[in-house]
Amino acid sequence: MSDRFAAARVKLRGAFTPSQPITDRRMFAGRIDVLTTLIRSLEDQRVHVIMYGERGIGKTSLVHVLTQAAQEARYIVVYVSCGAGSSFDEIFRAVAADVPLLFHRGFAPTANEAEKGGTLADLLPSGPLSPRLVADLFAKMTGTRLLVVLDEFDVCESPEFRRNIAELIKNLSDRAIRTQLVIAGVAADLTELVEHIPSIRRNIFALQVPKMTASEISHLVENGEEVSGVTFDRTAIEFIVFVANGSPYLASLLSHHAGLAAIDKSRTKVTAEDVSIAVDQALAEFRGRISKHSQIQIDQAAKSGVRHVLGVMAGAALFNNGRFDGRDVDALYPSAANAANFKGTIDELAARQILIEVHEDEYGRGYRFAEESVLPYLWILAAQKRFLENRKAPPPEKPADTAVDKIAVQAPATALDKTTARPSGASSRAADRS
């Protein structure tokens, strides 16, 4: 392969990284409103932040961009990725070790201990740390603010750890200590955390990270174009936006594979055909993560003609903890007759325990997919089929605006533009497409 295409391949791999969070601010797409809300909660309200949402929705990428902004605002930021066995003592000894002793009001900047690189960890006792002891230590900080980021919080299995975090939040808030927590990934544990100490509700800003809009997914692709030099034609972007269904992970995965498919054909222009190849590759990846039992049921559903029904519902359940109900059916099928037929099929599948099961919760009667890994697979199958069928359909007499036609090509300017701005060429190319 020529040097030109070898270089394009290398750049593309750096532009779209579906298996890794965004750490390069240039690649941060959309989310300006979400980022603004988070910053204002920390800066103006001085509350602790809890972010939660489904896998692949971009929580960790958002955390990385937020921490970069905080560092530029002269916060001390300590990022911790929690594990199943994480303990309160272990984590906050590590946090204290990242705070220089010169920010402790008991030590002058010229003190011998500070000049030798001492940290707050040097002041901790050898015994187990308690929330009150940690709060007492952070209360003596001066000249800065501390932001402690606990990512993958839901992975930790210890109820004691959650209780200690809740108690620490109460101590920090009640004493107006210059330390705030940002907790991410607690979709299943937010209520449990608050239940430990109900009074901390007023000290917490909880944000469910939403799925990305069509314009934000387009922005993500355009950012990748600038970095890689590979461009996507209008239909290719529409295809990616449709199948991604608001997921930055799926958008990045499809863009990555589609770009490589084009380069393999000695092109740097990605077409819908390249995206279709990318979708097939993604489907092969997702199918490999599904149990053999579910694979057999999916194949049987295809033969009986109900797999598409499951795929449409998978799209609704993808960002709702695997759950859907009759309201989702009504929203997708306004026709009463179609909705009734659809619900009948779903009830039959649930009764026979084919991939879905009846689920009762505080929202009433609904359904849940029995295996989480089938959700993206079923949705992508249905989305690819629907997009390609619509593309082959004869155009209406008066062409209707597509979803991409209505997308604003550039977000309104905010004070955060310097944090989240995309390269200047992206907006001009987007305008050319419109």
Could you characterize the architecture of this molecule?
By secondary structure, this protein is α/β, with parallel strands linked by helices. Among the domains are: 31-208, P-loop containing nucleotide triphosphate hydrolases (Rossmann fold); 292-372, Arc Repressor Mutant, subunit A. Helix content is 51%, strand content 11%. It contains 19 helices and 10 strands. The longest helix is centred in the last third of the chain and has 19 residues, at 374-392. It is globular. The model is unreliable at 398-434 (pLDDT under 50).
Shape: globular
Rg, nearest Å: 25 Å
CATH class of the domain at 31-208: Alpha Beta
CATH fold title of the domain at 31-208 = Rossmann fold
> Uncertain spans, ≥5 residues at pLDDT below 50?
398-434
Fraction of residues in helices?
40-55%
Q: Please give the CATH architecture of the domain at 31-208.
A: 3-Layer(aba) Sandwich
What is the mean pLDDT?
Answer: 83
Largest pleated sheet: 5 strands, parallel
Termini separation: 34 Å
Q: Find the CATH superfamily of the domain at 31-208.
A: P-loop containing nucleotide triphosphate hydrolases
What topology, given as strand order, has the largest sheet? 2-3-4-1-5
What structural class should be given to the helix and strand makeup? alpha/beta
Helix-strand pattern: HHEHEHHHEHEHEHEHHEHHHEHHEEHHH
Number of helices: 19
User: How many distinct beta strands?
Assistant: 10
